[in-house]
Amino acid sequence: MTTVLIVAAAAPKQPAVLIEALERFRSRGARVTVACFFDAADLPIDPALAEVRSFVVPAEKRDARLRRALGRAQANRKLWLHAQRNSWLRQRYRAADLLVALDPRSVHTVWEMAQRNTRAGAHYGLVPAQRALDTPRTEPVGKRLERQMAAVAGIGTRGAKRAAVETVRTTVQKATGQRIMGNPAGAWFWSRAVAAPRVPDRLRSKLAVRLHDSAVKAGRPAVAARTASAAVSRISSAATRADVLTKAAQSELALGHVPSGLHEAIRAQLALADAHLAKDPKKAAAAVSRAWSLASNRVLHFDRLSSPMSDDPGAFLAPFRASAAARKLSEPRGRLAPAAPAPTDRPLRLLVTTLINDNFLQEILERYRAMPNVEVRFLDLYEDPATRPLALSGSTVMEHLLGAESSYGAKIEEWLRPHLDWADTVFVDWCQATAALFTLHDPGTARIIVRLHSFEAFNFWPHLVDFSRVDDVVFVSEHLRDLSTAVLPQLTGAAAPRLWVVDNAMDLQRYPRDKPADARFTLGLVGFSSVAKDPRWAIDVLRKLREHDERYNLTLIGSNFNNRTSKPAKDYGRLLAKDLAELEPLGAVRRYGQTDDVPAALQEVGVILSTSVRESFHCGLVEGAASGAVPVVRDWPFFAGKPHGARTLFPADWMVGSPAEAAERILAVTATEQAWAEAGRAASEHVLKTWDWGVTRADYDRLLLGD
């Protein structure tokens, strides 16, 4: 009886063809096994026709050696790595008379099987296999022996080669690992070896990245920087140099470090962009995009308690200001006609637009929709799945700005032109993709207003906005205006847009409520999901208070801390979780969770905290103060000591510089129920008179209507 082994990498698209072939094999007296490298249940075949089995090793059962081998192997070899580990399948292919590859991905596996069973015929496809079955194979003994010897030699040679490669790879990995780079002698050797002459750029670059990563993980960033610089000085290709420096910086960012070679990597990418600018705008845009990806990485600005952008915007952005390609991104192209004055013979057409986030627009939309002299249209660029991808690609915007006409630019024109032609005034909330896209083409006579919140100042999007086509830029605080003008020089000068400081639109009248007497011992923090909110600062304040009186407790209102954004966020989250695990069982901390009824949550809060390292305004604090909670505001470190900040935004008696000062203020103001209630009433009166929508809406009327 002839035994046939069919190998299938995937379930056949036409199972009927396979079943028909199996019936022919059976009619010729053959016994058939089908080896599946997928779920055998996907191939329902009568057991009388063939034995069907699956042979993929489940992920949870793969040992370290197999995982490494699969990770390095080419796609066509992965099947063979699974097959050779199965003893049952080894017996089958060594005993088979005919080996058949059912699809292209299984050809290599059948070839490997045939090298180990030279007696069997090997074929790709069912038709050749059927022909071979009808034509018995005859071969002289000498020829068969020669083929067997060649197969055995080939197997040995390939195995030796793979073993040699694996040995070299393992040796190099160990020799360049963090233990070696953590040793002064090892670091000294490799920092010179990587800069040795006549080493090919490709090998030198890979070695440099490996050594840099090992040194960083060993806690020696200075050695890592020296090693990378030594290698880069020997690399002739500008693209390879930029790639090495960028990978080195990215590896440090992934570990939560501010890379010592960050500016060197940014400058290398920008130099590459400048070199490509004239002849290849696409490559220039890719390089600028990589530079901005490094510069706006969240580890630098959002998941740490400080930011180089806030510390010294000019120094941080100096490489971009020196680059011709980066400067071209924000180059003023002007508008063909100035914005037309508001119409007097019909309602003003107001387009309010954003991307995803409309959190700060509800009061604005409600007010102007109710006005008979205003016609409002709202556009969220994320809503339409057909056009959504156009709004989510910064690199494509860069490519358009650095080149000439593009199909992308034409699609944006087709998408947004009807809105621009309709609107008298366009209010763009958030200075990100929406602002860049609405200034990509001439806005006609529509007046363009852009509101910049906080995070955009640390992002690349404002640098893609043509502010020569923007009439007004709005900030919610003076300190944010100061930071933004330092980051964006195009916001200053004779041709710059008008700059406004207009508070957030907040309906605060619904917050004042009677509080229970014991609320004076409850601290509240609205929003604690990010490092920038620094909830551990509040924990520190709470600990100091409980040293005096264990009645003090903390309520955390909002989503839980998000530790998935980066390693620094994960590290911070781990420490916060440890704090909560200690204090929650004592009743000292309570997580209120996300809620749509914030006024109800704040009714139990007697002291409202602002513990952030940066805020543009901090609505949660103001809402808490409106409820009658006593405000305690940390002097936000990003802006502390500067002309404007939390100290110029809020009353002086709200302000503290440290957890100790915060505890001091709280102990004083909550010493008696009467003192606490009076301080809360005073805070509520102040915010209602200063920031309630009934007060601030006049500023929006002046901004949007020109009244």
UniProtKB/TrEMBL annotation:
Name recorded for this polypeptide: Glycosyltransferase family 1 protein
SUPFAM superfamilies per UniProt: UDP-Glycosyltransferase/glycogen phosphorylase
Gene3D superfamilies found in the cross-reference section: Glycogen Phosphorylase B (3.40.50.2000)
Source organism: Micromonospora maritima
